[in-house]
Design goal:
Layout lengths: L1 H24 L22 H15 L3 H13 L32 H14 L6 H15 L19 H7 L7 H9 L5 H7 L7 E3 L4 H5 L13 H7 L12 E3 L11 H7 L6 H8 L2 H12 L1 H15 L23
Antiparallel strand pairs: 1-2
């Protein structure tokens, strides 16, 4: 009973935050929603956002890691062919699932939560709410429930009828990419340096596997030496559970200070040379422009929250399928068969 009450309390945060955002939106600077519309389901499925928030709230209470996992699904979906729920498709027929790609294999999770949301929405409003919009809403709700900012989610995306495992392998920034490569991958999506540094702030929650940062502990540049931009005491604390070989799937907090709280501690860690991934720490060491933003966000959480919300809206608007394009899947794991 307590569990149910807490889940409902967590879910109640989201509609409240969204109501405040809607009340302020007329006074705020205009947002570029493109073809999408935050009121898209107001008449066809008015309870859609509450249904999503309720199930995300329950999942968040049962597993505090789930917030970061759902946020990551939206990111990994949008960076491949746009925000079209291609990531959610299982392999079948001619479709090779993006779940098999290097960025997603053994790490992407939360698909069962999306399934539960979709089933509830199909019961309430059959054939109406897309899987792509579910991902966008679940990402926002997960952020709010972890203590982060809320934002109005533009809606009306439709679902892809195919996937691209090659795009997933090539287009999603990797933990060991250089900063110029990461900047290029964001630029290809229409995202700038502010978006890059703000969106990587999602690493304030969640985990990473040993295999994603092992080279920093032992052999960063091929000379047999650890990464000198990783604090020596932090590296020493990581090595027992991330040895030279073995333990690939061992999990480590991306932000060990406040691992389940969406805040600006991530940037403070980077300033202390305690960013876990190489792609985290290069924000400080790789460019004066990104370093300036790291320092700004570390000093001012309100500005970080504002930029993060704006960048999430911008990312959620990458090449959506609208109008007659795509479809509204009945099951997020497979395309419809007419």
């Amino acid at each position: 009973m307590k569990q149910g009450r807490r889940a409902m309390a967590a879910a109640a945060l989201v509609p409240l935050a969204v109501a405040v955002l809607f009340s302020l939106s007329s006074a705020a600077s205009p947002v570029q929603w493109g073809k999408l519309d935050p009121h898209f389901y107001d008449h066809s499925c008015p309870q859609a956002q509450q249904i999503v928030a309720s199930i995300v709230g329950k999942a968040h209470y049962q597993d505090p890691r789930m917030a970061a996992s759902l946020l990551r699904l939206h990111f990994h979906d949008c960076f491949v062919k746009g925000c079209d729920a291609s990531l959610l498709l299982d392999s079948s027929g001619s479709i090779v699932s993006e779940k098999r790609s290097n960025p997603n294999k053994d790490s992407a999770r939360g698909f069962e939560v999306i399934d539960e949301i979709k089933a509830a929405l199909e019961a309430a409003c059959p054939g109406t709410v897309s899987c792509a919009d579910i991902l966008a809403l679940a990402a926002r709700d997960s952020t709010v429930m972890s203590g982060g900012p809320g934002w109005i989610v533009p809606l009306g995306r439709r679902d892809a009828r195919g996937a691209s495992v090659q795009g997933s392998n090539n287009d999603i920034p990797a933990p060991n990419n250089t900063l110029p490569t990461i900047i290029t991958k964001f630029k290809l999506q229409g995202l700038d340096i502010v978006d890059l540094v703000a969106l990587l702030g999602s690493h304030t929650i969640g985990d990473s596997r040993c295999t994603s940062f092992r080279q920093r502990l032992y052999n960063q540049t091929g000379n047999g030496l650890p990464d000198f931009t990783l604090d020596a005491s932090a590296a020493a604390a990581l090595r027992p559970r991330c040895p030279r070989s073995g333990g690939d799937q061992n999990l480590f907090f991306l932000d060990p200070v406040t691992p389940f709280k969406f805040d600006n501690q991530y940037y403070k860690n980077i300033l202390a040379y305690r960013g876990l991934l190489s792609s985290d720490e290069v924000l400080l060491t790789g460019s004066p422009d990104t370093a300036g933003l790291v320092k700004l966000y570390a000093a001012n959480q309100d500005i970080f929250f504002q930029h993060f919300a704006q960048s999430m809206i911008k990312m959620g608007n990458i090449s959506p399928l609208t109008g007659a394009n795509g479809e509204i899947r009945k099951n997020c794991r497979r395309v419809n068969h007419n």
